Every structure is written in structure tokens, then in C-alpha cells.
Amino acid sequence: MESDKAVDPKDDLFVRYAKEIKPAYDRAVREALLKHKRAGNPVPVERDGKLVILQPEDIAAE
């Protein structure tokens, strides 16, 4: 299997089904953030190129 082979955008499933994938991805992220918030667990996120740990009370995913 060639891992460095360029993929034609028309053959890329993420490009082809972006309209279906994006809402599902957004929903999954929102649900994961809510689970962390409810459990009282912090979440690592990227902000301005830096790693930031969001505390549960700072997670805005309602």
C-alpha cells in the first residue's frame, strides 16, 4: 500500500461526503465535551497554536 500517493479530491470520501460528515463530526465533538463537563474532567484544546487545558466549568458545549 502506497501511503504517500496523492489522492484525487473526487476520490476522497471526506471530500465527497463532507455535507454528511461535518454535522456528525460537530455533534460528536459537542457530545464528547458535554460528557467531559458532566464528569468534571478537563479537556485539552488548541488555542492560537498552543495547548490549553479547559477546566470543566469553562467548557461551553450546551
Structure description:
The protein is of the alpha+beta class. It has one domain. The protein contains two helices and two strands. The chain has helices at 13-16, 18-39, and strands at 43-47, 50-54. Strands 1-2 form a two-stranded antiparallel ribbon. The longest helix has 22 residues, at 18-39. It starts with 12 loop residues before the first helix and ends in an 8-residue tail after the last strand. The model has no long low-confidence stretch (mean pLDDT 88).
Helix-residue proportion: 40-55%
Strand content: 15-25%
Structural class: alpha+beta
Please give the radius of gyration in angstroms: 16 Å
Query: How many beta strands in the DSSP annotation?
Result: 2
Poorly predicted ranges (pLDDT <50, ≥5 residues)?
none
Oligomeric description of these chains: single chain
The coarse overall form would be elongated
Tell me the major beta sheet. Answer: 2 strands, antiparallel
Largest beta sheet: strand ordering: 1-2
Span between termini: 43 Å
> Helix and strand string, N-terminal first?
HHEE
Contiguous helical run count = 2
Number of domains: 1
